[in-house]
Structure formats: structure tokens, C-alpha cells
Design a protein that fits this description.
About 40% of the residues lie in helices and about 20% in strands. It has helices at about 20-30, 45-50, 60-70, 85-105, 120-140, 160-165, 180-185, 190-195, 210-215, 235-245, 260-270, and strands spanning about 5-10, 35, 40, 55, 75, 80-85, 110, 145-150, 175-180, 200-205, 250-255. Helix 6 (about 160-165) links the parallel strand 8 (about 145-150) and strand 9 (about 175-180). The longest helix has 19 residues, at about 120-140. About 45% of the residues are buried.
Length: about 270
């Protein structure tokens, strides 16, 4: 039986115009034990000015370590989404994210296949993804970092589609970051899908979906950036927790919601389950 932890993706402060350090402190104040920061390449105005939570991979990785230590929280991993179908972007982005994660002590780097080029076929895209993942795996394996492939885009929206991506490269560094909300909105039953992924599960995005959101978009989209507060939507969290305890490794339930108030309510829902 794997141990569960309560974490949060720092997207929950995106509308508060606050920096990374504020987001970590707020997560700890709310009762989360783990945080999942978002990484970006280069420099961008809002983060540099302190109005956004994303951290540049040009920064000192110890910036993240110090913020976590100061607030008594751990890293569940990094949100490092980059298009696997575009190796000119994905290869170097993922390799840098993995090296950054290793220096921070983060065990997981989460990503997905990303939007595809309109002129490539499915078979061509899978060759491109295999190249990107092979390059990333060769950097991840010796560092003990895991790559969490998320169900989020056109190919990973079904169990068979995500499984095909997971099997493109035979590497112990490649696993699944299951997103409860994305899988549900794509029109799938998230519980048997999650169960099928347990041997490969390295991280979980705890995303709930309101009934209104479900009625408007289920079966029409491949996912959504953030959900509602856990417990306010359609996901059976006791069932999700029971399944995750059967995974062979410890799993962080990393909440993905859109506001501080939703993050606070999610603690009330999930806190008794971890």
C-alpha cells in the first residue's frame, strides 16, 4: 500500500498576481505538505516583476529549495509542460527541466504531448515523441528523476492513446501523471483508467469538475487548465485515494484549482483521505 500526500499545483494563485515565494507560503498556510511549481524557459515580464508564480529555469534552483524549506513543504515535482511533438522545443526544455529538478531534489517532471503541427500525421507525431522522450529519458535515468506523462491533449485523451505514448520508450524514468479532471472531460471513466495506470503512476493531478462544466464540455475537450475545489464536483475522491494507495510508490495528490479559496476548500475534502 503506497502512502499518499496532499499537494497543490501553484496555479491556484494565478489570479492573485503574486510571486512564487508567496504561493509556497500560502500553500503551507492552507495545510498542504507538497507543492508543484511551474517552470518556464528564459525570462518573462510578469514573473520577473513578482506578479506571477512561474519560475525561470535560468534562476538558481536553490531559490525553490529555500522557499520550500522556509515553509516546511516538499516538492511533489514540477509542471514542465512542453510539446513532445515538437522536438525543437521539447527536447532541450525537458532536459533542462530534469537537470533543474535533480538539483532541487524534485522527483517528477510533468509534461504532455502538447498541441501538434497541423501538417504531421499521427504516426509521424509518435516518431517525434519517441525522439523527445528518448533524449529526455537518457538525462532523467542517471539523476533518478521521473517523467510524468499527463492525459491532456489529442493523443493522450484515451487510455489506449496514453498507453501508446508510455510505451514509446522503454525506460524506468517514464511514468504517468494522471489527471482526474482531464480524463473525465475527455469522456472517459477515470477510475478504471487510473487503476490500469497504477504500476506506472508517479504523480496525480487532483482536479475536480463541476456538474455545469461537465454538461458544457464533457466529450468535447481533452482537458482544462484547472478545476473547481475538490469536493465541489463530480470526482469520487475516496475512490481515487483508495486506488492510489495500491500504487507501488508514494503518490502526491496535487490539487489543480483556480483560486486560493478553492485551494482551502480542497484541503477540507482531501485532508482526511491522505
Amino acid at each position: 500500500m503506497g502512502r499518499l500526500h496532499l499537494g497543490i499545483n501553484l496555479e491556484f494563485v494565478r489570479h492573485d498576481d503574486k510571486p512564487f515565494e508567496w504561493a509556497v507560503a500560502k500553500a503551507a498556510e492552507l495545510g498542504y505538505t507538497h507543492v508543484e511549481p511551474m517552470l518556464h524557459w528564459g525570462r518573462e515580464l510578469l514573473s520577473e516583476a513578482g506578479y506571477f508564480h512561474s519560475v525561470s529555469m535560468l534562476d538558481d534552483p536553490l531559490r525553490i529549495v529555500r522557499a520550500c524549506e522556509a515553509n516546511g513543504v516538499a516538492l511533489s515535482g514540477f509542471s514542465a509542460h512542453t510539446p513532445l511533438t515538437k522536438p525543437e522545443i521539447g527536447v532541450e526544455y525537458l532536459k533542462q527541466a530534469i537537470r533543474f529538478a535533480a538539483e532541487c531534489g524534485a522527483l517528477v517532471v510533468n509534461t504532455d504531448e502538447g498541441p501538434k503541427q497541423p501538417w504531421t500525421s499521427s504516426d509521424e507525431d509518435h516518431v517525434l515523441m519517441r525522439y523527445t522522450l528518448m533524449e529526455a529519458a537518457k538525462v532523467a535515468e542517471p539523476r533518478g528523476v521521473l517523467i510524468g506523462l499527463e492525459c491532456h491533449q489529442q493523443y493522450s485523451r484515451t487510455p489506449a492513446g496514453l498507453r501508446r505514448i508510455l510505451e514509446l520508450v522503454d525506460s524506468p524514468a517514464i511514468g504517468a501523471n494522471f489527471d482526474t479532471g482531464n480524463s473525465y472531460l475527455a469522456g472517459e471513466d477515470p477510475y478504471p483508467w487510473l487503476e490500469s495506470l497504477l504500476p506506472d503512476l508517479v504523480h496525480l493531478h487532483a482536479k475536480d469538475i463541476t456538474l455545469q462544466h461537465s454538461e458544457a464540455e464533457r466529450g468535447k475537450v481533452t482537458g482544462t487548465p484547472v478545476g473547481c475545489a475538490c469536493g465541489d464536483g463530480v470526482i469520487d475522491w475516496a475512490r481515487v485515494a483508495e486506488l492510489c494507495r495500491r500504487a507501488p510508490r508514494e503518490i502526491v495528490l496535487s490539487v489543480e484549482c483556480g483560486t486560493v479559496e478553492q485551494a482551502a476548500r480542497s484541503v477540507g475534502c482531501l485532508g482526511t483521505l491522505v
